[in-house]
Batch of 2 targets.
Target 1
Amino acid sequence: MSFPGVDALCCPHCGGALTDGERRLSCEEGHAFDLARQGYAPLVGAHSNLTTGDDAGQVQARQDFLAGGLYEPFLEPIRAAAAVDAPGVALDIGCGTGYYLADVLHRTGRTGVGLDSSKYALRRAAKAHPALGAVLADAWRGLPLSDDSAAVVLNVFAPRNAVDIHRVLHPEGVLVTVTPDPEHLEPLPKFVRMLQPQERKEDKLIESLSSHFERSARVPVHFETPIDRKTVHTILAMGPTARHYGPEELRRAVDDTVPETIDLTVSVTVSTWLPASL
Ligand SMILES: C[S@@+](CC[C@H](N)C(=O)[O-])C[C@H]1O[C@@H](n2cnc3c(N)ncnc32)[C@H](O)[C@@H]1O
Ligand SMILES: [Zn+2]
């Protein structure tokens, strides 16, 4: 079976097309990339930094949390935004466990590329859907995909490099982002000091994308839901806060401060962006 999405991939060293061999991808220049035992392709270029990728504990927490279904309401607006006719793969940058990409592949019948800098995330993503090719790479170091090769680019709570996304996105394709609103995950910061990822800020999102994309739709997803203390812990354990606290310290902080159940605010924006003609 060939590696899903191989036609869209390119060599991180020379940019040449990649072909599929016995559990390895290689280019004409002789650069070769052995697939990991768990099925992902390590297309890691020079100067890549993989240290920002989620660690094993964060990935396990994310898997557990998503399995609980709390973010299921994001799926429909993502699917709707991803329904385009352009040719190419569906690429998910910072795909994590592949939860959103697998759903898009299931609905659209496309082939997908899930890119992440965490090998722990990719072990899951590689199994999330048979048409999903999992790729280890640093999203800030040049995407190992050829020009115009993606019909859809997903970017859900993850880093984004506007220039390179524009390069790989087909002119008739779409970029779909999911970003947290300021009140997302209230009232958790009242109980535990939370690290706020940079992409939390709406103006940062617009600033980072508006030179290369025009936003064509914006769908707010906003609801409140009761959750128990265990779920609070899982949410904190999958995010950047987990890196600040050690596992024991995080457990104690949650047990000491969070009531048995709380009402959680979930508030995100699903945005559709069209590539600007530059
Ligand atoms: C908040 S998680 C979101 C994961 C997934 N999109 C989801 O919502 O379930 C951010 C993801 O970005 C990945 N990531 C962080 N820095 C990255 C980088 N420089 N290049 C690629 N992926 C990166 C992390 O490993 C993690 O899987
Ligand atoms: Zn090469």
Note: The pocket of zinc ion (ligand 2) is lined by residues 11, 13-14, 16, 27, 29, 31 (CB under 6 Å).
Target 2
Amino acid sequence: MARHAGAIQAFQWVMVAVYLLLVTVPAFLPPPDDSKHIWDNLVLFAQFAFWGVWWPFVMVSMLVMGRAWCGVFCPEGAMTEWASRRGLGRAIPPWLRWKGWPFVAFVCTTVYGQMITVYEYPEAALLILGASTVMALGIGLVYGRGIRVWCRYLCPASGVFSLLSRLSPVHFRVDRESWEAAERVPAVACATLVDVRAMTGGGSCHMCGRCSGHRDAVTLTPRLPGSEVTSLPEREVSSWDTNLLAFGVMGVATGAFQWSGSPLYVALKQSLAAWLVERGIMFPLTETLPWWMLTNYASTGEVFTLLDGACLIAYIAAVAVTVGSITLAGLWLGARLAGRPEARWRLGYGLIPMGAVGLIIGLSSLTLTQLAAEGISFVWLPEARAGLLAVGLAWSGVLVWRLLPVERRPLAWLAAMAGAAALAGTWSLFFFVW
Ligand code: SF4
């Protein structure tokens, strides 16, 4: 990768061109009718490419090869770095380094995406992806010189990618002895501002390969999947990571995937509607908003009323608070039972596999819905989903077990696994009961 940087950059610009084509052009095409297919209509093709292939498989790629998507394939990364080479080159201000941005950005993007039905309408995709791209370019133009400030601090997906990549079976390992023994050479320019010498894991490394072989000390190395989680140095442990996992990945994302198929959402809406009608308050049932605030597409007849929007937000918030609180309470209790109350944030990293499985089965549901519309379905789906949930639970179980002190394990383990059990229960209910 270090030797073929030119080829990688050329490939990144191909990705930029394809991305810009697929995100802009469909928004200006007429909506497809029922006779159209993924292979003969650009709107459906772009929809499948973004939400059926790109989004779920980017998540899977994090588990397989770390953040290589970010460093090698991501068009926004390439664009923000390009802009940063030509921009003002200002110093990164403290507010921009706030560790809570990935959490805030992930939650806001996920909820807003549901409000405007981003997975189905190209205008909505252009709005959300386009806004993100414009912000990436703007941040690149103002801050840093030849670096990816956007990717490191602000990208809505960066926090999730960082969590998932910690499970990956490969990383760039730094051999400190070789590093110290090597002759002095110019420092490697890591675009994502990783301190390569002190790097111990893959959470921030974008796997771009530019430091590969540096000082004969940096090598792409296999490792036991998840081993980074159980050997995380203290300086890498962050309460923001655990909160993002508990409330964002396991909470908000789950609510966003499930609300439209949930009988609880329907019951909530019906009871609220009845309550409003009884009191003669009709406007929440009839008023709508522009499509860029709340789904409103006369062409397909899909229009959300204020009540729809309010119920959608309330449902996602309720799932987030319920699953997130169970997760944090379980971690808190588990850490106390283990005699190490301060370890609750670290224990949370053990739940990453379960969170990853939740994301993957949620996102792949979109893929399967799109394929079903083309007449392609899979009879083994229930077994595959049950199997994935079992793998997530088991993998998290092993990591949490290993994160606990040997002498205080069983009870502490049961408590710390509460969040994983809650998430598995939510998905089981969704797929096998509802
Ligand atoms: S640490 Fe090395 S491989 Fe990782 S992003 Fe920085 S330069 Fe690229």
Note: The first helix runs from residue 5 to 24.
